[in-house]
Design goal:
Belongs to the class-III pyridine nucleotide-disulfide oxidoreductase family. The relative contact order is 0.11. Helix 1 packs parallel to helix 7. This protein is α/β, with parallel strands linked by helices and about 450 residues long. It has eleven helices and 25 strands. It folds into three domains: about 170 residues, FAD/NAD(P)-binding domain (3-Layer(bba) Sandwich); about 130 residues, FAD/NAD(P)-binding domain; about 120 residues, Enolase-like, domain 1, CATH 3.30.390.30.
Length: about 450
């Protein structure tokens, strides 16, 4: 059997690995239109801050190793068209300009997404950058040490925007964040958390401008000099980093496989498209959402990787359904580390779900352990169904790393555990690590009290 895999990021990479594990004799052709495979955009901050020294190290795989494993890797070769009836793809080789058709038995697509374009005046000025992919990473790295860059404007305050803001603030620059929503990180955290993080950003020379969009860019001599917001605020800018969302890279698939009204590829639980021998994974698809039982768009590497494995197993003839996910994620903002999973009060409305939440504050270790020895306050929020008491989500934040607790909540959501199940769940205790009652226990026990009111 011959399997063609389109795309080399998280989903495509995992599809290739699964096929090699389950059916190593399969003929695998792996296509990447860029000149580098499996770059991790989620690892870009580590490179920009110098934790990872070489940009080529921010990757899963190298072509030579994949070829040793028996995979035919085609770099700078783009699949531009698909003919499902003939089971062929059209390939443009950007190395020499040649074109050809290749046949397949199964096709696994990870077309990904591209940064959203902002239709504002001045978009074509120099020094307006994106933050996605290896090429942009190299350009952004140069700007972190550019002495002419003193003011940076970041458009968008999701994870990518926050990472960009922190990178340039640490590089000694003044940063302004422009966000359409009222709060930064509003899709990931509720207000108890974002209020603190907004203050933290301010203390590190990062100003936040919420409830407004960018309306225009001003420039001189072809370079951007300012960003103007929809409220008329003019922000000086030697560099603009646009991180205002993504759009699926699927326009070229219209008429090939069925797309929804947002341009996402429709897939079933096997990650199979409307064409039985074509599978799709990653940011251009929806994933089953455990808290609601429906589907949601959650563009995370973890989801793409699971989809890649799932698609490969089904392409090989195995029966395997995509495991529902909860959108678990984590990030740091200077000294603070936070994580969230499932539903939040700020997002439950769009799913039409009624929720109740309990917020608790605890310490990372017993109170007798001084902060200097690794103690700190922990803020924890548990979200659940007020009638069934089923756990629906959670959020945690501390200057210590309490983020792994969200893996517990994610598993609780998947298993449809209740607040009662978590209240006295068994967790270890050792003063050098945590409290006698894990913060998950503390939150669930308080939730039981809140439910009595």
């Amino acid at each position: 059997m011959k399997v063609i895999v389109l795309g080399s990021s998280h989903g495509g990479y995992e599809a290739v690995r699964q096929i090699l594990m389950d059916a190593p004799d399969t003929e695998i052709q792996w296509y990447e239109k860029g000149d580098f495979i499996s770059f991790l955009s989620c690892g870009m901050q580590l490179y920009l801050e110098g934790v990872v020294k070489h940009v080529n190290d921010v990757s899963y795989a190298k072509p030579d190793q994949a070829r040793k494993d028996g995979v035919d890797v085609f770099v700078k070769q783009e699949i531009t068209a698909i003919n499902p009836a003939d089971h062929t793809v059209h390939v443009v080789n950007h190395n020499d300009g040649s074109e050809r058709d290749e046949s397949y038995d199964k096709l696994i697509m990870s077309p990904g997404a591209v940064p959203a374009d902002l239709p504002v005046d001045g978009e074509g000025l120099d020094n307006i950058y994106k933050m996605r992919g290896r090429d942009w990473a190299i350009k952004l790295k140069e700007k972190t040490v550019d002495p002419s860059v003193k003011d940076v404007v970041v458009i968008g305050s999701g994870y990518i925007g926050i990472e960009a803001a922190e990178v340039f603030a640490k590089a000694g620059m003044h940063v302004s964040i422009v966000e359409f929503n009222e709060r930064l990180l509003g899709l990931y955290l509720d207000q108890e958390f974002t209020d603190t993080l907004t203050q933290v950003m301010k203390a590190h020379n990062v100003d936040f401008y919420g409830s407004q969009a960018v309306s225009a860019y001003k420039g001189e001599n072809g370079k951007v000099t300012a960003a103007v917001t929809s409220k008329g605020v003019e922000l000086p800018a030697d560099l603009v980093v646009e991180a205002a969302g993504i759009r699926p890279n699927t326009k070229w698939l219209d008429g090939v496989v069925e797309l929804d009204d947002h341009g996402l590829v429709k897939v079933n639980d096997a990650n199979q498209t409307s064409e039985p021998d074509i599978y799709a994974v990653g940011d251009a698809t929806l994933v089953p959402f455990a808290p609601t039982g429906g589907k949601s768009r959650i563009a995370l590497a973890t989801n793409a990787r699971r989809q890649g494995r799932n698609a490969a197993m089904n392409a090989l003839g195995q029966k395997h359904a995509m495991v529902p996910v909860s959108g678990s994620s984590a990030l740091s903002v200077f000294d603070y580390k936070f994580a969230s999973t499932g539903l939040k009060e700020g997002t439950a409305g769009k799913f039409g779900v009624k929720t109740m939440s309990t917020v608790v504050k605890d310490t990372f270790r017993p109170p007798f352990v001084p902060d200097a020895a690794g103690n700190a306050e922990v803020l924890f929020k548990l979200t659940y169904d007020p009638e069934s008491h089923v756990v629906l989500g959670g959020q945690v934040m501390s200057t210590q790393d309490a983020t792994q607790n969200m893996n517990v909540i994610s598993l609780a959501i998947q298993a449809k555990m209740t607040v009662e199940d978590l209240a006295y769940a068994d967790f270890f205790f050792q003063p050098g690590f945590d409290r006698p009652w894990n913060v998950v226990n503390v939150a669930a026990q308080q939730a039981l009290e809140d439910l009595k009111k």
